[in-house]
Amino acid sequence: MKKQLLLTTILAVGMGAATAAWAQDAATANDTATNSDAARDAARDTVDEVVVTGFRSSLQKSLNLKKDAIVVRDSIVAEDIGKFPEANVAEALQRIPGVYLSRDGASNEGQRISIRGLGSDYNVTTINGAPVRTTSSSNVGGSSRDFNYDVFASELFGRVDFYKTPLAELEEGGIGGVVDLQTPRPFDHPGQAIRYQVVGSYNDKSKHLDPAGFALFSNTWGNFGALLAVAHSESVNNRSGFEATGGYNSHALGSQSPNKGPFAVTLDFADPRYNPGSLTRAQIENGYLPRFYRYYGGENTRKRDGAVASLQYQNEKLNVSLDGLYSKLTDSLDEYTFGLPIRNSKTTNTAAQPGAPGHNGLVPINVTLDPESNLLEGTFGNTSYLGESYFYNAETKFKMASFNASYQFTDRLKVTAQGSLSKSDAFFTGNRLVSNLYGVTSTIDYTDDHVYPALSAPGVDFTNPNNYQDFGVGFDWRREIDKEKTAKIFADYDYGLFGVEGHLKGGFSYVSTQKDTSKRNATAAGTAKVNAIGAAGLRSQMLHEVPLDNLVIGSGYPQEWATFSRDYMMNTFDPIGTARATPIDFNASFGAEEEVKTAFLQTDLKGQIFDRELRVNAGVRYSETSTHIDNYLRQTNGAVTTYVPNKADGSYDNTLPSASFAYDLTDKLIWRGSWGKTITRASLSIIAANTVIPNIYDTRATSGNPDLLPQTSTNYDTGLEWYFGRGGILSAGFFWKELKDTTVSTTTTVPFSSLGLPDTALAPIFQDPATGKVDPNLPITLATYYNQGSIKLDGYELAYQQSFDFLPGFWSGLGALASFTHVNTSGYNYATSAGKILNVNTVPKYSYSLTGYYEKGPFGVRLSYNYKAKNIIETTNNGSDLQRWHAGSGFLDGNVSYKINDSIEVRLDALNLTNALTYDYFDDVSGRYGDGRKTRMDYAKFNGRTIKFGVRGKF
Fold it and tell me: Which of 303, 340, 877, 898 is deepest in the core (most CB within 10 A)?
């Protein structure tokens, strides 16, 4: 209903605005049409410019470019250098139809994008036309083909081009699209330019005031120019709320062997305290419990430094530039969790301490079943409490140098050469110190506020360190290094043929991508340190409260509990140094190189059909890819497992044709169409890696396949654009993609001993307390990947834009933009336990963006709302028939600016004005247990509002 209402609203606004535009057209019928003086490349591509300053004039320029274009290319262009209000490029890209934003969970900054129903690994990102790779924070070690935009400050870029349709000259690999980030150069703004910006940022949850700044100097002297810019920002972000961390399950499923559902759980019905109350035992056995019932509180401190530099020489024929880009992103995250662990709870030894492993089956004493069959209210005996202190550190350093030279040999022929070197060096370390409190009778109450539920245990002092025992640690260290070497040479040639204007472009490129991923697990060394310190020594260092300020904790939850500080962890255990001294995990560490040699040829044609202009682009791209993998081969001799270096090579080639057209049906109506083939290569983590267990608390493993081939896609686009009046457009576009050879996984159940993994590959809950060994016959679900899938998707995009400068007086400063995207997918299937196949969407089915602005004289106001619908996270059924979804969410942002003079402009930005709740939830596909959006939540957290006050200007 919401989607239909929104669609109706956008169409109504657009048609109403068009009616107003007819009157505007009549008043301006004798105006001379504006002609674009943009470069030929811009005239060939569709450009939707979402300009972040000087909205009115810049949006008009974008429409002039759009009317002369062929392929679909959206752009974000700052009117002046350094005037992006967003923290990074990803947050600006979400304004473009078809783009979905994913945020970093700790900092709440935009991090990755998904395009038109495909995940973020289906995109290619380039900087100044050269492909690059970089990652950050908890994504380090994933070895995916995603690109993390939060590494960079948006002020370091002068323009972002976003291609949705194939073009022969573009880098292959992006079925979803290609994003090109362009750094500024001196001759972008000839003469001297000095820009500055100083910002103070305040988050109402962390209550921190954090600084940010930007400075740029650029000048040209005759044919020479130089530019240097630096940017710095800091932020502290607090998050808090409820966590289930891994799903919901019932006794009926979790007590089976092997268990069904996301985790094992066996209630204790033999305990004399068991009291079903008004429920039957069958009702209790089939009631859902979360994997954890716990509170989460975290504080992330982020710092980002960046710089961009350019040296340029330019005359009438020669244009040479040397560009450099640097960025460093650091994160320090402290997380504290406290609550009931329910996973792997079972009573097999009543002689053991109540609540401890072996005697931790929960006893239902007086519980209530809600309408969705969740056991989230009532009293349970034999519960234990797990307190976890997590300390994460992450750092990404990115360096890039690029060279670009073009020479105009004749009026018709220009030759361009490009080359670049880039390196991204990222590491992530996650270290935890845990403590247990056993044998407690607890009462839980999910309450109406599911973000901050209630938990109580009368008579238990959670702040007393003497109540805690069985301390443990976990040290995880990952490093991911990406290196890119690129070279490209191509020629542009203008020609005429039978009265048709033509432009030919062709060339060759070489790209070498190297990735080195290493992982280390120092848990064994950390455990030895824990044992040496002893329980008494650890208790003496515990704090009596959580050492984070301004955390929000529900009134029904314990407000304090004993825990540990970051200083104690780092100074006593030195987890980072300990991990670096530990041998690498041979199963999860590898090196890989991809070499891609490419030739491309394309032409533009412009002529008349039925006295109307037709513009065509047609081309083909041929690439040869060679893959070289260095990993480790497991060898088993009896009970001894060793790893020896291993090399594997592979190769394949692809031919990718494409064609696009734009036809002027009338002076104001343009019809566009596009067809082409594209590819996306599989993630290196499932090509080069051996067998790994991604989550030590989950008995699921993955195994790589070096023979995986790229996925291929055939793409179709068509659309109409109606230009009404000055600054107005109403457009509708349709797209369709068919993917073949997509990567799918098949699963088998194998014993743990067959994996050849160390016992530390699984958490202590799976290890024998006496020996520290995992049962060799423990069932493990092993997933292996193959090229066996296919995906079909289609959708439509609607866009509206208008400046109301035809209105009288004050009202002429108003303007509006709106867009809506809807995507249908098939091929992402979810199989229920009953064998029914359901089609699900891994990205939101629809999204929309609404912006209203006022800009007149020195004063400007803008308000924007961006919403994306729900999307499924996991498509594999673990036996519980519960699908994990990311809930739909919308963010409302606004800003006010006032330009005092050319040197000073003051600006106030407000982000997340509604303090939107972000969360996952588990929905029952069978429909038996209702809607899980409010009853089976996970990772439910508020991020708070951020207010930024800044001064910027130029000299």
Answer: 340
